[in-house]
Design a protein that fits this description.
205 residues, mainly alpha, 3-stranded antiparallel beta sheet, 8 helices, 3 strands, 51% helix, binds manganese (III) ion
Length: 205
């Protein structure tokens, strides 16, 4: 078994005008595909070729296999990112809404803090909404391929802040990309599903 490039959960043009079809074609078809291809090659070299993506990531993290970790974690992070976006408008509901109000005061305050973290993150990486070990919602950023999958925090949503996520549409204006994503395309239903499951999302086999 090898890792596959998962399908996007929506057509390439579904997120326009927030994210263009051209960006998604390159981001998914070229960048995500390249991470998949390199993960399969490196995992096979390490005797991990038959393992699930999550097993490969955790093994690479605990064995300081940096190259494999970077490629494999990027495969997982991108899959999680595709589901963190949606063309269908949603709002925080259920236990997620309750926790947002308790831990941030309001959805607006959460979004403001997430925007600040995503825009302010230095260089390439990811901005996340997670459920922390203290059972409170939190915002964090990770550098490069870093992922809360290998922490004790439960990932709920992510925003890719690598330049390849927005450069075709926004040039260097990360703020415009982040604000549009936060306002229009965040998939709060996915966040709630992750929260309710209480286990990390798994990449489609
Ligand atoms: Mn990316």
């Amino acid at each position: 078994m090898t890792i596959s490039l998962m399908n996007l959960p929506y057509p390439h043009n579904a997120l326009e005008p927030v994210i263009s079809a051209a960006t998604l074609e390159v981001h998914h078809g070229k960048h995500h595909q390249a991470y998949v291809t390199k993960t399969n090659a490196l995992a096979a070299d390490k005797g991990m070729g038959g393992s699930s993506l999550e097993t490969i990531i955790r093994w690479a993290a605990s064995n300081q296999e940096r190259s494999l970790f970077n490629q494999a974690a990027q495969v997982w992070n991108h899959g999680f990112y595709w589901f963190s976006l949606s063309p269908d408008r949603s709002n925080p509901a259920g236990d997620l809404e309750t926790r947002i109000n308790a831990d941030f005061g309001s959805t607006g305050q959460l979004i403001a803090q997430l925007a600040e973290a995503a825009v302010g993150h230095f260089a390439s990486g990811w901005a996340w909404l997670v459920l922390g070990e203290d059972d409170k919602l939190a915002i964090e950023t990770t550098h490069d391929a870093g992922t809360p999958l290998v922490s004790n925090r439960l990932p709920l949503l992510t925003i890719d802040v690598w330049e390849h996520a927005y450069y075709l549409d926004r040039k260097n204006d990360r703020k415009a990309y982040v604000e549009a994503v936060l306002e229009r395309t965040l998939n709060w239903d996915f966040a709630l599903a992750n929260l309710v499951r209480k286990e990390a999302w798994t990449y489609p086999a």
